[in-house]
Amino acid sequence: MIPRHFEYHAPRTMPDVLALLGQFGDDAKLLAGGHSLLPMMKLRFAGPGHLIDLNKVSGLKGIDRVGSEVRIGAMTSEHELIRSTLLAEAVPLLVETARQIADPQVRYRGTIGGDIAHGDPGNDHPAVMQALDATFVLTSSGGDRLVPAREFYRGLYDTALEPGDVMTQIRIPVPPPGTGSCYAKLKRKTGDFATAAAAVLVRLEHGKVAAAAIALTNVGPTALLAGDAASSLIGRVPDDTAIREAARLAMAICEPAADLRGDEEYKTAMAGQMVERALRTALARCA
Amino acid sequence: MTKKTHVSFTLNGAAADVLVDPRELLIHTLRERLATTGPHIGCDTSHCGACTVDLDGTSVKSCTHLTVQCEGAEILTIEGFAKGGVLHALQEGFTQEHGLQCGFCTPGMITRAYRLLQENPSPTEEEIRFGMSGNLCRCTGYQNIVKAIQYAAAKLRGETVATSHPLMADIGA
Questions:
Q1: How many domains does chain B have?
Q2: Which of A87, B8, B87, B150 is deepest in the core (most CB within 10 A)?
Q3: Which residue, A212, A199, A193, is CA-closest to A275?
Q4: pTM of the model
Q5: Which among A128, A150, A173 is the end of a domain?
Q6: Is B46 in contact with A105 (Cβ distance < 8 A)?
């Protein structure tokens, strides 16, 4: 399979990227890791006239701690997330998630920014970013603007990215000490998208849930923040009854599309199972 | 039509220069322009790993990488493994441990395993299976591939190695 013809651009700086975007507008696509875009171009589902490769642009990679935040350059690869000792300590949820994305080869190329910005509900970072209450830095010729992950996703492949925007950085508030987290993902095989997956963060005080966040992957047109499910846990002892109630509330917001991974009922049930599994694991990890 | 682009990179230690359409995939450049047919086209959808090459210290599926992205890159394929007629430890391991049957996936397997062992010279069986999960084999059931990589890892660490295969013991390395 061979993509349609296009012109290739490999800018070195952000101003050059923005100038190219301004020049070619809708006819241009940004190339990050390329493991969503290139397959779509090979299948002729996408046929941009211009491809702007971000791989040689300086300043878009790296993982740093700045105060109570971890800041990750959008072009940082999944492989780099997995090998980061900083993340293993500060945001282990992100390492656990990256390990479940695609396969080793794809993780050398695939980037956190690409996964977040693509807008496919099957991507794993969008739910995790919502659970973590992350903020995205979008850069355009007008400067930077910050968009919370929980306000970024509007629909299938529809995000807060405007023409001329480039996702450049992800900012994650470091969860307070004692927080337990888990990303539980059901997939048919290595490299598949989730049948359903759940990201959970939870913190206990005196045996009761003091804080909780739950978000779901691939059971709606976007990743879904399960706000009611998380709220139902607050102030409660997280016993089986409380966990099942949270899973039931999470299932109530699912609206999955039936495909080869299963019908709507099955996927919704699996989303509930993933919430239960992630909650139990996250609770066991609360320090 | 778009203008062709001149791309220069290092392939198995030698300079390579090609003139390609921007849309040309690395696997096609390797196989059709540079007669480097070790990397195979299996699924052509970045699942099977048969087209795996080592590119600037990473394992890459060359069916999902553009040749124009390779300007200045260092690329290693299975053709670059044996030195002076002596098999690389991984090639020896795959032979000694019967890590292949039809052989179609083997160049990708060995090229991927090479990078895995560069990053982790003493992987556990679980780490090998996790690290090799982007390469599919439809013949072996993977057990002998794991053994082949363990064999190579031991040899690369300077340890004495012996095949676990009863019928291979007499043949020697």
A1: 2
A2: A87
A3: A199
A4: 0.96
A5: A173
A6: yes
